[in-house]
Amino acid sequence: MQFSAILGQEHIKNHLTRSADLGRIPHAQLFIGPEGSGTLPMAIAYAQYVLCGNQNGENSGVNESCNLKFQKISHPDLHFVYPTVTNEDIKKDPKSIDFIANWRLFVDQNPYGGLFDWYSVLGVQNKQGFIRVEDAGEVLKTLSLKSYEGGYKIMIVWMADKMNIAASNKLLKLLEEPPEKTVFILISENEEDIIQTIRSRCQVLHFNGLSETVIANALISRENTDPKLASKIAHQAQGNYNKALHLLNDDSEEFPFEQWFVVWVRAAFKAKGNAAVIADLIHWSEQISALGRETQKKFLQYCIDIFRQALMHNYETQSLVYFEPAVENFTIAKFAPFVNGNNIHEIFQELSDAIYHIERNGNAKIILTDLSIKLTRLIHKK
Question: Is the dihedral of CA 129, 168, 140, 41 positive or negative?
């Protein structure tokens, strides 16, 4: 992974390469950044820089045999941990190593991919991915061995906030007193979701979302996108290159979030004073509850984003509004008046609570029906 291939984040590139050149390599770092900001490719590029002894801020020209191993993410001293689930082949106690072929393909095809993309590769259905204590055991065993090439060993923990308590506790001692020449790179989108005892043992680096210019230029140069379309997509992507790629490839057909959202808010609007419409909301809840939990959570997060867009439109901050509905007769201008300062906090809270309860294996049909009935009241709140 070449640093030059990573979009933006120049200050972090410079910090990582300079600290490595000076031999100041922290034993544990935590990369915090939103989806599509480049935390994973940066971690891989940094690992390559350290393991291959590269210099001058780029991964080339020093140890080409080592650099070649990184093209297939197959360096023997580079290890990964990431959320996994059981499937038809791995029916019990799944570990990251069980899915290494899937992982290498995922990283190769889209290193900016998010957690939902990875779960799609795994086919999680109604399951939720975690980093379990079995993974922590593999980490302890792997890092207790000598490095294959006599240098550093690097462990990248992707989506470290998905570690369950047992796994976190098992890794604490190792993070505090790692073996010699062992480096941990933890990656997460939400710093607060990682337990404090682990955060306190890491040097934290914060990644910003990418600028519209960086995303647009990448779409033009890498995807041969028309400049006008690239600029439009870059604005809609909101700093997320992964989202930009999905928008470019029009991946909305598999999960038509916009259509589900419009059906939902229209039914909620009509339901006030019309008990018959409640049946439509219950039917909608049944449909969404039949989806996998990760899809439900992603859809509810999508709803939060659209309500936020409506509020921005209502407050006339047009430069921040990127949502362009494709559903017939639905416009953000018509919807925005029903989202205001008197109801937005409660709407956000109810959506966040629904995500929380679904994540903890609550009954999705009951959670979504309750949310829908509450929305019928909130959307009419003046």
Answer: positive
Tokens matching residue 291: 């989806």
Does 227 lie in the same domain as 202?
Answer: no
Task: Report the distance separating Cα 27 and Cα 154, nearest Å.
Answer: 9
Model's pTM, two decimal places? 0.83
Q: Does residue 132 sit in the same domain as residue 174?
A: yes
Contact indicator for 328, 314 with CB cutoff of 8 Å: no
Mean pLDDT of 127-137: 87
pLDDT tens digit sequence for 182-238: 999 999 998 888 888 888 888 999 999 999 999 999 999 999 999 889 988 898 888
Q: Is residue 144 domain-shared with residue 216, that is, in the same domain?
A: no
**pLDDT, average across residues 243-259:** 79
Q: How far apart are CA 35 and CA 239, in angstroms?
A: 9
Contact status, residue 178 vs residue 184, Cβ threshold 8 Å: yes
Average pLDDT score, the chain: 87
Which structural domain, as residue segments, surrounds residue 232? Answer: 212-254
Closest CA to 8 of 244, 309, 226, 224: 244
Number of domains in the chain: 3
Do 276 and 133 lie in one domain? The reply is no
